[in-house]
Amino acid sequence: MSNKFDVIIVGAGPAGSSAAIMAAQAGLKVLVIERGEYVGAKNMTGGMLLSQVLNEVIPEFWKEAPLQRPVVSQRIMMTSGGRSLTVDIGNRKFSEPPFNGFSVLRHEFDAWLADKAREAGAVLVTGTVVDDVIHAGNRIVGVKTRRDEGDVYGDIVILADGVNSLLARKAGLRKPYQAHDIGLGVKELLDLPAKTINERFGLTGNNGAALMAIGDFARGIPGGGFLYTNKESISLGMVLQPQALIDQKLTPDEVLERFKAVPEVARLLEGAKLIEYSAHLIPEGGYNSMPKLWADGILVAGDAAGFVVNTGITLQGMNLAIASGKCAGEAAVKAYQKKDFSASSLGEYETLLAAGVALNAMKIHRRAPELMSSSRMFSEYPDLVNDLLEQIVTVGSGPHDPIMTIAKREMKKIGWKNLIRDGLTGVKSL
């Protein structure tokens, strides 16, 4: 293997492979280094891929990608005290091109996307750990690996090595995370026949559903549950705040079992068999905790750059990874064309990000971490909603209060100041 490339990309996840595709298609000599023994070895089992950005990288990707189901039903559930409210946002057009999103199994999807990078001309090396970046003065000029060849040099290094990017810290682009900037995702892959999935979720053909849930099953810990239907399996899990777990002396598995025990969820999972369990750290600090995204000779993309948005009812990760990787690859091409790899030249990365979905989503939802850190979001508000609806639908033998009277009585339990403060934060974060 050569020890000199135009672009070196660390990490073969969605961000890294997308960057590699864009750079290799433009004729650059690209090396992708993946620490896993195979692409996808370090990833969680599944999730939902919002598809518009990938369609820009690989037009009509759905004709060949290893996808599970197009998601045509997105459900939001709030639970409290044995009660629940579920809102189903369904759209039949999401079952047709260009679609809105698909459930995917990451080990299959990531391997396919890496293969597309190789088809474009990139060199992929797996089972290789990168220990550090190589400095030449203030500029990054390569990486130090544990392979026999050791050092590899490149005009541009793109870090797409995940949430715990030690390389970004060593390059001086990121400070250590604060505890509240990190979420812990735990996930199970559960075997269930396609016919059973369709019957229980009210689906037809290969259409799929997604569920996001908050409520008392989380024991007041900031975080929520999620569920995605695959062809013949269910991806189910939770994203939780690690420090809150420590403070309450709970394990993530204990909270996950409480989510699975919610009657409305348990009914969907009855008879399902565990295939796989995984856990993964997730950047949840939002826009205000993002690292510096570029410097002389280097760019940062995907989870390593903090490109994740979690509002409690929507979760964007893979699409933002692909979007940021695409922009990083395009910025590398522009810099190579100018033969200028300075921070000033690579600052084009921000311009490209600002013109697309990635940076825009981070800025729009910059208050989401504040909203998600409030225990009221996961206990008092589900209580408020379910208390209100219970009183509305319960008919006794005496007089029934008007709905506004019931609503005012329930909202007083939280307090008007909290309602106003959380309402403003919520509006700004969604």
Description:
The structure is a single chain. By secondary structure, this protein is an alpha+beta fold. The protein has 3 domains: 5-66 and 105-175 and 291-355, 3-Layer(bba) Sandwich (FAD/NAD(P)-binding domain), CATH 3.50.50.60; 182-283, 2-Layer Sandwich (D-Amino Acid Oxidase, Chain A, domain 2), CATH 3.30.9.90; 371-428. It is built from 16 helices and 19 strands. Strands 3, 4, 5, 6, 11, 12, 13, 14 and 15 form a 9-stranded mixed β-sheet that branches. Helix 1 packs parallel to helix 3 (106-120) and helix 11 (348-355) crosses helix 12. The longest helix is centred in the C-terminal third of the chain and has 21 residues, at 318-338. The protein starts with a strand and ends with a helix. The mean pLDDT is 92. Keywords: FAD, Flavoprotein, Oxidoreductase. GO terms for molecular function: oxidoreductase activity.
Features:
430 residues, alpha+beta, FAD/NAD(P)-binding domain, 3 domains, 16 helices, 36% helix, FixC-like, flavoprotein, Protein FixC, FixC-like_C
Level-2 CATH architecture of the largest domain: 3-Layer(bba) Sandwich
Biggest beta-sheet profile: 9 strands, mixed
Given as residue ranges, the uncertain stretches (5+ residues, pLDDT < 50) are none
How many H/I helical runs?
Answer: 16
* Gap from first CA to last CA: 47 Å
CATH superfamily of the largest domain: FAD/NAD(P)-binding domain
β-strand number = 19
What Rg, in angstroms, do the CA atoms define? 23 Å
Oligomeric assembly: single chain
- Secondary-structure content class: alpha+beta
* Count of folded domains: 3
